[in-house]
UniProtKB/TrEMBL annotation:
<dbReference type="InterPro" id="IPR006811">
    <property type="entry name" value="RNA_pol_II_suA"/>
</dbReference>
<protein>
    <recommendedName>
        <fullName>RNA polymerase II subunit A C-terminal domain phosphatase SSU72</fullName>
        <ecNumber>3.1.3.16</ecNumber>
    </recommendedName>
</protein>
<comment type="similarity">
    <text>Belongs to the SSU72 phosphatase family.</text>
</comment>
<keyword id="KW-0507">mRNA processing</keyword>
<dbReference type="Pfam" id="PF04722">
    <property type="entry name" value="Ssu72"/>
</dbReference>
<keyword id="KW-0378">Hydrolase</keyword>
<keyword id="KW-0539">Nucleus</keyword>
<comment type="function">
    <text>Protein phosphatase that catalyzes the dephosphorylation of the C-terminal domain of RNA polymerase II. Plays a role in RNA processing and termination.</text>
</comment>
<keyword id="KW-0904">Protein phosphatase</keyword>
Length: 194
């Protein structure tokens, strides 16, 4: 069992809901964790499905919060966006884009298959320098408050189990199979290299 905390990245599309909920849970349990999005822009629900609020990754959570308050405080309180942004700004200043990060992780967990594909594509396009492995795991999590919490708990339990393994390389496939059976969710897994 490793005494060094796993270096974990959690990735969703906009670094708002699912990745930030998992970031919160993992950081409370002592993991070295960062969270990211893979989109070209950050999108939050707007007044209608075809009218999202779109921001770039340089926009702080505080700026997004203030923008939504100025647009329609009641709507964004009711749909949970203001509450989510309040949580986010307690964790870090702004969303981050995975493709712009050069940090090294032991484990990258994605929250939907299209994000998994983008992370794997990005990792495979990078020049391999150290050949250090990184495990990329996807668990599909629906993008809503309740599922984000359920998914964060599942990701946290998975990371805790991985942390307790004697040899992650040898034990991970079996561990993921157990988690698939217990959770009823399929997991994707591949290994990339730095």
């Amino acid at each position: 069992m490793s005494t060094v905390p796993l270096r974990v990245a959690v990735v969703c599309a906009s670094n708002q809901n699912r990745s930030m909920e998992a970031h919160y849970f993992l950081s409370k349990r002592g993991f070295s964790v960062r969270s990211f999005g893979t989109g070209t822009h950050v999108k939050l629900p707007g007044p209608a499905p075809d009218q999202p609020n779109v921001y770039d990754f340089q926009t702080t959570y505080d700026q997004m919060y203030n923008d939504l308050v100025s647009k329609d405080r009641d709507l964004y309180t009711q749909n949970g966006m203001l509450h989510m942004l309040e949580r986010n700004k307690r964790i870090k200043p702004r969303p981050e884009r995975f493709q712009n990060c050069q940090d090294v992780f032991d484990l990258i967990v994605t929250c939907e298959e299209s994000v998994y594909d983008q992370v794997v594509e990005d990792m495979n396009s990078r020049e391999q320098v150290t050949c250090q492995p990184v495990h990329v795991i996807n668990v599909d999590i629906e993008d809503n408050d309740e599922e984000a919490t359920v998914g964060a708990i599942l990701i946290c339990k998975l990371c805790q189990c991985i942390q307790r393994t004697e040899d992650m390389e040898d034990e991970l496939d079996e561990l993921l199979q157990e988690f698939e059976e217990k959770s009823g969710r399929p997991f994707l897994h591949t290994v990339c290299f730095y």
